[in-house]
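Technical annex, item 7. During the second reporting period the consortium partners agreed on a shared format for inverse folding records so that results from different sites could be compared directly. Each record opens with the tokenized structure and is followed by the designed sequence. A conforming record, contributed by the partner at site C, is shown below for reference.
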């Protein structure tokens, strides 16, 4: 297994450091990013499993040491010798597990380095495509609307905005009436209507790509704060006799990790445009 990981690590190092012989298109870069993200997730899970195994081996070694000490006090030299021999084997397994964890961590670092490199290349390609489109010599005819057309456009935009708000309110009212047995409080209903209207208004105000990214980052930051609050609550408010639901906590941690990755990518995309 170590040999296999070593060969794959060599491939990742080559992918990170070697310059490509030709420029890759966006589809090829996206395929490589998908592959690298899958490998990074797999490596991270293997590293977590290796750490758990290392903890179990350490506990077993400590237990054998205590049993050997008890056997020595009881003058059971044969039992103590056998326990110490088992402890020696466990210590050898611990050393191998440590090496595996270090190797997987190094491999994960190389994978994330390769992901960052490919993301930078993809962003550069997209920026070049946008620049090429902006420099397109195709003539564009601009026709100025008359006063009647402008008034008509303003009226239609207002009607569309009012129609969207009315549709949201009608849908929420229908949902509340169809679920009358739930006795939903009026404060919660009004809050949901307000959230829907605010979301529509926020999307309407995003007149540019940069403002859309800021709006998206704001929504993700709120979700991130709720996840952090949930994780803190799950950690601090569990009783001594209760066993935490590891699967739910782990899934929440993974979602938090993905959200922070997306926010980091948004920050990298917004960075060059702000300077």
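Designed sequence (site C submission):
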């Amino acid at each position: 297994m170590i040999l296999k990981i070593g060969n794959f690590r060599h491939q990742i190092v080559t992918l990170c450091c070697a310059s490509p012989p030709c420029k890759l298109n966006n589809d090829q870069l996206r395929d490589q990013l998908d592959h690298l993200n899958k490998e990074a997730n797999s490596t991270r899970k293997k590293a977590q499993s290796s750490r758990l195994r290392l903890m179990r081996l350490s506990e077993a070694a400590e237990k054998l040491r205590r049993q050997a000490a008890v056997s020595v006090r009881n003058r059971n030299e044969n039992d103590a010798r056998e326990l110490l021999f088992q402890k020696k084997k466990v210590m050898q397994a611990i050393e191998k597990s440590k090496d595996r964890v270090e190797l997987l961590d190094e491999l994960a670092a190389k994978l994330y380095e390769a992901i960052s490199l490919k993301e930078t290349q993809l962003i550069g390609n997209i920026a070049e495509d946008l620049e090429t489109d902006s420099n397109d010599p195709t003539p564009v005819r601009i026709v100025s609307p008359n006063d009647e057309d402008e008034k008509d456009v303003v009226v239609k935009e207002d009607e569309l905005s009012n129609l969207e708000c009315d549709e949201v309110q009608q849908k929420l009212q229908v949902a509340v009436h169809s679920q009358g047995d739930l006795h939903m409080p009026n404060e919660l209903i009004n809050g949901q209507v307000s959230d829907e209207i605010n979301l529509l208004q926020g999307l309407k105000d995003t007149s540019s790509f940069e403002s859309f990214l800021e709006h998206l980052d704001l929504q993700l930051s709120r979700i991130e704060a709720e996840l952090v609050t949930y994780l803190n609550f799950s950690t601090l408010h569990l009783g001594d006799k209760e066993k935490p639901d590891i699967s739910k906590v782990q899934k929440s941690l993974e979602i938090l990790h993905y959200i922070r990755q997306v926010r980091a990518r948004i920050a990298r995309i917004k960075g060059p445009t702000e300077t």
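Residues 1-127 form a domain with the Helix Hairpins fold (CATH 1.10.287). DSSP finds seven helices and no strands in the chain. All partners now use this format for quarterly exchanges.
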